[in-house]
Amino acid sequence: MQAFEDGVYTGSWTNWDRGRVRGATITLGKKNGQVLTAVLALFVTAAGTSFFRLACFAMHRALSSREPQDAVYHQRQAVLRNSATGASGVWKLVQVVWSWRFRGQNALARLFPSILCAALITSAFVVAGIFTSRISVAPGDKVLLAGVNCGIYYRPADDAVFLTLGLPYWSSVITASAGHAQQCFDVNSSSLSQNCATYYVKDALPYSKELDVECPFAEELCLNNGSAIRFDTGHLNSHSDFGVNAPPEDRVSYRQVLTCAPLTREGFTNDRVIPEDAGKNNETQYFYGSLTGQEKLNTTNLTWWSPREPIQEEGLSILRTEYGLSVVRHYGGYPDSEQPGNWLPLPELRHSDANTFLVAIEPHTVQFVQPVDDPVFSAHRRSTFSTGTYLADYTEGVVACRTQHQMCAGDAADGNCTPLTTQARILSALNTTFPRAAQYGSASSIFSLFTHVNLEVGDTIAGLKAAALHARRYLDSGVQGPLPPDQWQREVELWWRTALTVLQMSFTEQATGPGSEEYARSLFRRPETAGGAKRCVSQMVRSAEYTSFSTLGLGLVFGLGGLLVLLSWSVEPLVNRFQKNRRKNVYRRLEWAANGTLQLQRLAHEELGLGSWGGGAELVPTTQPGQKLALVRVADAKHPTLVSPDQASWEEDDDDGDKESQRSVIR
């Protein structure tokens, strides 16, 4: 199978799962995606800091007062002016409250609104930072294939090419699908196993199952008229189920229905005497219709034949320890002379609006550890070959199935659908049913898998032979483990699931192309229509090797975040200039300036008469070059103060017990 990782489109595209606006997506490689995710987190942090600074600016101005105030007021104003982040602001305000807790200034009540505001802003942007991951999570893990190697399969006109390339290719597809179906599906339930992830947009195509329905064939052919089983995919959407990325008006839906029932043997079998075999009745013939190209047998309606008794019981030199399985197929809608199948069924088995296939399972070549009540695997005869085992009651059990298809433009509710019929009849109606180029491209892509390859359930079983049987999982050296009475239904369901997996895999591989260049060159063609070309660049798959981001989410984060950063840089100078020019709120403007860290430092030194200062209302005040400022007086370690340099003196400081150290101590 083709590895598609190198064929994923990176860049901007629209995921129509979420609509034109919300579905705008940017896909990046894993490393680039990690870089962008980190940038987003940092940018949200920067935006949060900017918003906090804006809030501090607003609160500082709102709480500013010309009246004489106490220390709590001035400390709050200083914290609002100089806190770089919400977390640091909350911490400093809490420290102010704690320091004043016993001094009767009601600090908690006065500072609680500021603490709450800072805490809410901090929490909000922490949450926003977490939810920025949604920008990459929201689009999911779906990616768009570039369609570089896109091609539609066409059966080679040269039979030699088909036999040497076509058959091996489809055999590999069917075998891989069967392995996936047997691994992922539990025949004892209708659910997927946990270890069943795929790169398709859906791990498995959905379907419904109905038991005990009416047999789809003539009553005299059915073993039990009310024991049939029906599977119905419902209307599978080309976008949501097959992954063809398209707006609603360009989508199509596809439906397949399979109905199967065991056939009776009575009146349709004959025990044939082989003269050269000493007169033993060791062959049973089945008459459900003649095989195409077998006219020379001169046996009307002979479908196949098989040994009547278990080979082990005959004492032959070759011991068979495996099931046998045969399939014959008939495609409705074709005259017998042009029949692409290998079987011309009895009139009672024919449907002009359906395809029919028979599956003959030969259980008589194995031994069963317990009696089997299943109508196809029925085994109740005691074996003389091995004590304690049982043999099949009949040489073969026969299951007949009918398949039908339907296509709709858009949803089935829109009413523009073909009848539920054969693919041959639907193919002739594609042009009228799908007038839009994109719809026609998707519809023809789906149906090319049935017209050029015949990937129906019967074709899948024919490719797998006995490997299609789930019962083989419990077969060892010709001895079959216990089988339930509904084993044939479980087998049919596995065939159905395998065929749906083949359909999924083959449809997706039209966009990826096969893994082999020889296959691509000899078996696939690039679509020539506009709709086909569009279908090539519209296939979605799932991949964990890429990261997709919501374009809307990125725009909102960078747009709103950038606005906050811009405002945090521009609001203060713009407001100050506006108020300065109109001489408004002078005290509030100057208090904001004076509470800055560098301005508080200026005020302390200037109060001591140190320095010739300029820029007293700016962000950074300056002195004349070379001027010396105050030193910290540390004689009282619990209450340091500033002191002029000319008041400083040298004395021995032995507070730490170091008699030899000399330090500059300011008295």
From TrEMBL:
Residues 649-658 have a biased composition (Acidic residues). The keyword Transmembrane helix applies. Keywords: Membrane, Transmembrane, Transmembrane helix. It comes from the Eukaryota. The keyword Membrane applies. Residues 640-667 are annotated as: Disordered. The chain crosses the membrane at residues 35-56, 111-131, 552-575. This is Uncharacterized protein.
